[in-house]
């Protein structure tokens, strides 16, 4: 149980400036960010004392859920001149970062950060806390992501992740339950991808030169080029060593997996995501016309 002390977020931010600015990776789940996390770890980046099998920073989950459930998509209450209305948030942030950095030598000069897919949805708060942080947004073809199952939008947290609101029970006549998701998961996955990518790019535009967009397809097809680009952005060295160590483990077999789906299912995906796929260059104009 975290004991609360009524400090403002500004005070917490000032305390966190004693740390070097973090490197933050965010993306829609099943976009290949595990590979990107391995690249950063190989480059010496400390990604947390505890990560799961997907390399997500487990210690940040409590803070993520607190902010999404309590505030997203409107964080305006946090910027009130008298400080946040939520008295436990400042110490929740302190506790989260302390647990995440357990075992990290703060005097070493070693870079640090984290990879957590849904960080996308709390970027305004993270950017306030770490005004010099650098952000990498990994994007994968939404048609492929549509056929990588994740989790149903049955709980309030996931409803917000999918639809920006917890006050929703159906979407286009589809129920937001586990059984409904399993029956047509590719439709729900497409909605999830679309919201995540749009939000990440919108926030990224405001981060300007501290935001880097990386395509999963580029990471696989031109691994050396992508690694050098990421290392340059993050101020890391020895990209060649990372390429040599990880290149044999990189494959392109997951690219274009949507081609195994029926044409009818692909049309359903395009009904939802076609404009975004076009804007990202995943869908050539000649394929956009039925």
Structure description:
The protein is α/β, with parallel strands linked by helices and 290 residues long. It has a single domain (9-288), classed as 3-Layer(aba) Sandwich (Rossmann fold), CATH 3.40.50.300. It is 47% helix and 8% strand. It is built from 14 helices and six strands. It has helices spanning 9-16, 33-42, 61-70, 89-100, 123-129, 142-145, 156-163, 178-183, 185-207, 216-221, 223-234, 239-246, 263-280, 285-288, and strands at residues 23-27, 113-115, 134-139, 170-171, 174-175, 211-215. The strands form two sheets. Strands 2-1-3-6 form a four-stranded parallel β-sheet, sandwiched between helices. The termini are far apart. The model is unreliable at 1-6 (pLDDT under 50).
Brief write-up:
This protein is of the alpha/beta class and 290 residues long. It has one domain: Rossmann fold (3-Layer(aba) Sandwich).
Distance between the termini: 57 Å
- Our count of helices gives 14
CATH architecture: 3-Layer(aba) Sandwich
CATH class: Alpha Beta
Query: How large is the radius of gyration?
Result: 20 Å
**What number of structural domains do the residues give?**
1
Write out the strand line-up for the largest beta sheet, numbering strands in chain order. 2-1-3-6
Total beta strand runs = 6
> Can you say what the CATH homologous superfamily is?
P-loop containing nucleotide triphosphate hydrolases
Structural class: alpha/beta
The coarse overall form would be: globular
From the 3D structure, determine the CATH topology. Rossmann fold
Largest sheet: 4 strands, parallel
